[in-house]
Design brief:
The complex is a heterodimer of chains A (about 120) and B (about 110). Chain A is globular and about 40 Å long. Chain A has about 120 residues and is mainly beta. Helices cover about 0% and strands about 50% of the residues of chain A. The relative contact order of chain A is 0.31. In chain A, a hairpin with a 4-residue loop joins strand 7 and strand 8. In chain A, the strands form 2 sheets. Chain A has a 6-stranded mixed beta sheet, with no helix packed on it. In chain A, strands 1-3-8-7 form a 4-stranded antiparallel beta sheet, with no helix packed on it. Chain B is mainly β and about 110 residues long. Chain B is globular. The chains are: A mainly beta (about 120), B mainly beta (about 110). The interface between A and B is medium-sized, with 23 and 25 residues.
Chain lengths: ~120, ~110
């Protein structure tokens, strides 16, 4: 069973860049859609986007101008970059796997990492 | 704006049955896109509970079932147990968003 683990800074200053990495273990990072999802405190889940193992991406239109998701198959990792962050970007960030776009559920998920945007 | 609407909270006594609804529109559930359900305990990874409307992953008890009709979907939990207390989320694709949506989440309290 594939396992995912998020890592990265827990505190980011406003207007700066949030950067997170998801490490994949127990399986290959090939041929799936590797996704980021976030949950602001007290709110619901929001899909951020995904990267396919080939490097192609798809992003939530509300975040598209600020988001980049990339993949490093040699390290079995994929990453999230979110630029020009504000307090509204404070959230628990999860990485998760979508098998295919036709089998579009997310399973499994990482434990999540809380990122706070504050000066 | 694309939205999946869930009741903020539901409750039931042990042994009872509860239903959690997920109301969408013609651009998501009503366009016959699959609906998936997750159980989430704060501080842990969300867990896939139902996929493709009605299917349970291995290890999920048959007390959990899903259904879909027109622009809505439902998660039914029978024989409520204390450990079912958690947040539950529905998820589907939305063609107007060209991406994936989650419901706002429903907090289940076992009385």
């Amino acid at each position: 069973q594939v396992q995912l683990q998020e890592s990265g800074p827990r505190l980011v200053k406003p207007s700066e860049t949030l950067s997170l990495t998801c490490s994949v273990s127990g399986g290959s990072i090939g041929s799936s859609y590797w996704s980021w999802i976030r949950q602001p405190p007290g709110k619901g889940l929001e899909w951020i986007g995904y990267v396919f193992y080939s490097g192609s991406t798809n992003y939530n239109p509300s975040l598209r101008s600020r988001v980049t998701i990339s993949i490093d198959t040699s390290k079995n990792q994929f990453s999230l970059i979110l630029t020009s962050v504000t307090a509204a970007d404070s959230a628990v960030y999860y990485c998760a796997v979508m098998p295919t776009v036709n089998r579009d559920w997310f399973d499994p998920w990482g434990q999540g990492t809380l990122v706070t945007v504050s000066s | 704006q694309a939205v999946l609407t869930q009741p903020p909270s539901v409750s039931g006594a042990p042994g009872q049955r509860v239903t959690i609804s997920c109301s969408g529109s013609r651009s998501n559930i009503g366009a016959d896109y699959d609906v998936h359900w997750y159980r989430h305990l704060p501080g842990t990874a969300p867990e896939l509970l139902i996929y493709a409307d009605t299917n349970r992953p291995s290890g999920v008890p048959d007390r959990f079932s899903g259904s879909k009709s027109d622009t809505s979907a439902s998660l039914v939990i029978t024989g409520l147990q204390a450990e079912d207390e958690a947040d539950y989320y529905c998820q589907s694709y939305d063609r107007s968003l060209s991406g994936w949506l989650f419901g706002g989440g429903t907090k289940l309290t076992v009385l």
